[in-house]
Amino acid sequence: MDDHHDLLRPRGLHGVDHRIVSALRACGADPRVAGAARALSWVGEHGAVWVAVGLAGAVVDRPRRGAWLRGTALTAGAHATSSLVKRVVRRPRPAHVEPLVGTVGRHSFPSAHATSAAAAAVAFGALGARAVPPLAAAVCVSRLVAGVHYPSDVAAGAALGALTARLGARWMNGGTA
Known about the structure:
mainly alpha
């Protein structure tokens, strides 16, 4: 193997992150995959799709309106928390791939899209919204295909979102926090 090339290749977790985002970003060369990644990234921006789902659930499921609204608040809170963590960690976005989408900020850890998606999957999934978990997973993968996050950014964001929703589950369902 070329020693010079080997010196430029990241090692360890960063190297794995680097290689996975490169491979998934390459999938975006297919215009259909790129279009899906762009659309999923757009709907996940600022957790907008999850707020819409939560508010729709509150309108449609009147007996559990409070749970839907509290689930929406948990999802928005998880998103805000990830944004704060991002400002502390300040990890740069992948620079070795051309992104498919623009981003609001230049920091990538944790993925706020993944945080709000996982929070919504846990919170709204508990309320019976079966379509939310697969859509949430698709939003998470879209950030890798779009080339704007490393897998560890998405994994950390998903863990933060799921934990936030899990910790707030009792409150969401009408109990005290």
